[in-house]
């Protein structure tokens, strides 16, 4: 388990490297498709391999609730369980526990100018999670049963799931929380990080029959520079193998926040930017020093009939594509584009056929995985800025 730094952009933040894991190397920067419940929705693991994905990220919260980490451990780990031979990640479950707890589901990055409060709840939602200094008590969104996550429990669950890269349990705040609450939460996350490391080291010794798992600390601090930098400096002092940049992020300040953090982090350890998947955000993340990314967006929007193209998002369900027998994206070498037409996908979505989601997801995941892979190549050959300008100019041309 190691990280090798290879090339850097002139700003000394953006870089290429390789994360070595027991299940293979991850050349970075890289986009990691999300397989929340040990599956990238609607597609076979073999298809995820074919699109060029370096790894997949599963979710500890969801797998804890179903089928249970004991089942996955008995199978030999999440890779064996889902027939995926490559590297795997699991997040700690903190985002899901706390985002579901305040009723925002998958969205915590709201407008930072909204009125802030200590006790935040989405409108017309019930509280499903209660946070204290020891951990979080939460209600399952599946059956309403009550559960308790502490740093130790999160480590135990993730060790049983068996991913190559796991994350420390953290409190994920929203941009609606006050500055005072963010400060208290940062202290809590730091204390939890210390407990995660202790439990991780204990479990690593007890479970020596399993491959070593890299543990990443998660940096919070919302939109505050001093808090983000403090969190990064504090976690640098601990024995983490890498770092995750998490929490609610004001999209307009994404690059600035990532830069603050990465200016503090050591250059010889990998950095994962959690929950980021839009093309402009990926360019910003790479430019400011993030190595890996994950996001559910490519698969989620695919299931609604939205596909990526070099000229922006396309709604494949509209009537204009009913008799369009061209490829979904001309020149795209993915399985969908080389074998199927816009007219066929249009028909599948209108007919509510399951194959629609499969074919659209294959294309969208390929589009984003290959986009970040191309960023890696342009950093190596010195043309990153030109590639960024050309790609984003075309992608967002219709929005100007």
UniProtKB/TrEMBL annotation:
<dbReference type="InterPro" id="IPR004803">
    <property type="entry name" value="TGT"/>
</dbReference>
<protein>
    <submittedName>
        <fullName>Unannotated protein</fullName>
    </submittedName>
</protein>
<dbReference type="Pfam" id="PF01702">
    <property type="entry name" value="TGT"/>
</dbReference>
<dbReference type="GO" id="GO:0008616">
    <property type="term" value="P:tRNA queuosine(34) biosynthetic process"/>
</dbReference>
<dbReference type="GO" id="GO:0005829">
    <property type="term" value="C:cytosol"/>
</dbReference>
<dbReference type="InterPro" id="IPR036511">
    <property type="entry name" value="TGT-like_sf"/>
</dbReference>
<keyword id="KW-0808">Transferase</keyword>
<dbReference type="InterPro" id="IPR002616">
    <property type="entry name" value="tRNA_ribo_trans-like"/>
</dbReference>
<dbReference type="InterPro" id="IPR050076">
    <property type="entry name" value="ArchSynthase1/Queuine_TRR"/>
</dbReference>
<dbReference type="GO" id="GO:0008479">
    <property type="term" value="F:tRNA-guanosine(34) queuine transglycosylase activity"/>
</dbReference>
<keyword id="KW-0819">tRNA processing</keyword>
<feature type="domain" description="tRNA-guanine(15) transglycosylase-like">
    <location>
        <begin position="14"/>
        <end position="396"/>
    </location>
</feature>
<keyword id="KW-0328">Glycosyltransferase</keyword>
């Amino acid at each position: 388990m190691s990280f090798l730094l290879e090339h850097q952009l002139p700003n000394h933040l953006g870089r290429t490297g390789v994360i070595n894991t027991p299940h293979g190397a991850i050349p970075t920067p890289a986009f990691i498709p999300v397989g929340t419940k040990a599956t990238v929705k609607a597609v076979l693991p073999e298809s995820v391999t074919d699109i060029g994905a370096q790894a997949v990220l599963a979710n500890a919260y969801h797998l804890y609730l179903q089928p249970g980490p004991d089942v996955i451990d008995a199978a030999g780990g999440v890779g064996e369980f889902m027939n995926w031979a490559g590297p795997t990640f699991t997040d700690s479950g903190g985002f899901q526990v706390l985002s579901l707890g305040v009723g925002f589901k998958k969205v915590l990055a709201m407008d930072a100018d909204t009125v802030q409060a200590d006790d935040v709840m989405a409108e017309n939602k019930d509280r499903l999670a209660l946070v204290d200094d020891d951990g979080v008590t939460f209600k399952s969104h599946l059956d309403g049963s009550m559960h308790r996550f502490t740093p130790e429990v999160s480590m135990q669950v993730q060790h049983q799931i068996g991913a190559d890269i796991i994350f420390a349990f953290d409190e994920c705040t929203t941009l609606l929380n006050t500055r005072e609450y963010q400060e208290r939460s940062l202290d809590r996350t730091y204390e939890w990080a210390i407990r995660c490391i202790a439990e991780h080291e204990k479990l690593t010794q007890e479970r020596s029959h399993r491959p070593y798992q890299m543990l990443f600390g998660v940096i919070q601090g919302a939109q505050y520079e001093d808090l983000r930098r403090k969190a990064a400096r504090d976690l640098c002092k601990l024995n983490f193998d890498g770092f995750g940049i998490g929490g609610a992020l004001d999209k307009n300040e994404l690059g600035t926040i990532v830069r603050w953090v990465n200016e503090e982090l050591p250059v010889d350890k990998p950095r994962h930017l959690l929950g980021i998947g839009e093309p402009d955000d990926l360019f910003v993340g790479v430019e400011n020093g993030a190595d890996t990314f994950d996001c559910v967006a490519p698969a989620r929007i695919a299931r609604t009939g939205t596909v990526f193209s070099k000229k922006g998002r396309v709604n494949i369900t509209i009537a204009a594509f009913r008799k369009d027998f061209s490829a979904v994206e001309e020149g795209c070498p993915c399985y969908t584009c080389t074998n199927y037409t816009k007219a066929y996908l249009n028909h599948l979505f209108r007919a509510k056929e399951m194959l629609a989601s499969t074919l659209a997801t294959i294309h969208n995941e390929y589009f984003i995985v290959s986009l970040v892979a191309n960023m890696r190549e342009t950093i190596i050959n010195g043309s990153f800025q030109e590639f960024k300008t050309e790609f984003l100019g075309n992608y967002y041309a219709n929005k100007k």
